[in-house]
Specification:
115 residues, globular, mainly beta, four-stranded antiparallel sheet
């Protein structure tokens, strides 16, 4: 889960217990997604960053920069190879999970981009 406290929290869905707190954002975390295999967590924040985390250890894998506005939504492809982020900068970006590289920037919206 994400919150205006800038934190991402991992919870045990069976017990409701907090498993881990991920620190790295400096703004409200608007969106969090987990890969279908459960190995990666992605978060998007007011700070304009998209962060990829190791779900088991909580370690930061990549910090993705490129948005100039707050990141409102993130998603991970079914195969776990791509992250999509939507921002207040009117862009939707596609990223490579393994390298953290930006693959594509989709413009054309006249309002905030969501994915």
């Amino acid at each position: 889960s994400g919150s205006d406290d800038s934190l991402v929290k991992i919870w045990d869905a069976a017990t409701g217990a907090e498993v881990r707190t991920l620190r790295g954002h400096s703004g409200w975390v608007h969106s969090v997604a987990i890969s279908s295999d459960g190995t990666r967590i992605v978060s998007g924040s007011d700070d304009g960053l998209v962060m990829i985390w190791n779900a088991e250890t909580g370690a930061e894998v990549h910090t993705l920069t490129g948005h100039t506005g707050l990141v409102q939504s993130v998603a991970i492809s079914r195969d776990g190879k791509r992250v999509v982020s939507g921002s207040e900068d009117n862009l939707v970006k596609i990223w490579d999970v393994e390298t953290g590289a930006e693959i594509l920037s989709l413009g054309g919206h006249t309002g905030e981009g969501l994915c």
